[in-house]
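I had to read the description of the data format several times before I understood it. Each protein is reduced to its one-letter sequence and a matching series of backbone shape codes. The format is easy to grasp once an entry is in front of the reader. For illustration, here is how one protein appears when written out as sequence plus structure tokens:
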Amino acid sequence: MNAASRTPLISTVALTLTLGTFFLSAPAHAGDGTGDGTGANTEQEGGGDGKSIYAAASVQYSGAVTKSGGAGNVASADVNWTPPPCWYAPYMGAEDFKKKMSGDIDKWQNDPDITGTAGSAIGEMQRHYEDDYGWTDTPGYKDYNVDKDGEGMFWAGVENPNEPDYLKRTACSDLPFWVDNGEAPPPQYEQAITPEMLAALAYQHMELPGTKVTLAPEAITKVNLPTWAWLDEAVFDEVQATAAINVPGFNIQATTTAKPKSLTLSPGAADATTIPADGGCPIVDGKIGEPYAKGKAGETPPCGIIYRRSSGGETLPLKAALTWEISWTGTGQAGAVGMPDGTIEATQNITVEEIQSVNR
């Protein structure tokens, strides 16, 4: 009998805490990408044998992504933007879930150290999945829904292993819940995985090419002499990373695209002059800056720096931050959707010598 209209013997909070302690003490991680930044792909996929479904809650990454699922090298220009710390995603078909959950419940019930409220909550959890025991907005199940095996899946919480905040990372700790194939998760599960979340995860895992600026003079420059700066044209290829979940009855994906936008130079000396004055070198005709050529010593570069004093035999940290315009497309989206710009920064050491002019 479904007790949807009455309060359970043990509060839902106790059930959730108990589940977090036992069943989801180590929630499924987002998955280990095998990327090397040049076209990686994970191999974890769902499957079935005609009787039961074997699902991987892991996100599959492909394209310009990092190795082993680690966070990429691009930082959001918006300090308030973050990828999802956790989410709910397909976990197991009914028969597999019954085998997993009933085995865990049996183990917990026979553990002499689990007593009191925790022991009662485990009993309620068993009734919830076996005896159709539920409460408001949370229906119960009869024998783990095995009569619907292959027609849907139980969903469960997934941690983002790159989220440093433990409480945020483990916040998706509700009891696993059933979702029919082709149906949306119940609305109370606001953290159910979406294409937009996948786009954010692809952003987080994206590996962009390095930002090594070519300089002339290189490494050693002179006081009051313009130092020309430019980027190799190969940097300007757009970069794409894709994140997807593909299991029987549930297939969504999102591709995040990054395009170079501008270069910002920070000379490492307060009295240096940047060119342009704000230090931002835009893309013009598909390139940033202009390579130095013989005969241009008296000209002002479109992108560069003029140091006003010697570095005194030390080196100065010239920082170059390349800003990338980020957007995503994915399941259910008619066109590209903007995301916060991304940046990638590199530092090069520059020595400035006390010579007022030089023939080049």
In short: Residues 94-109 form the longest helix (16 residues). Residues 254 and 297 are 48 Å apart (CA to CA). The chain has a mean pLDDT of 83.
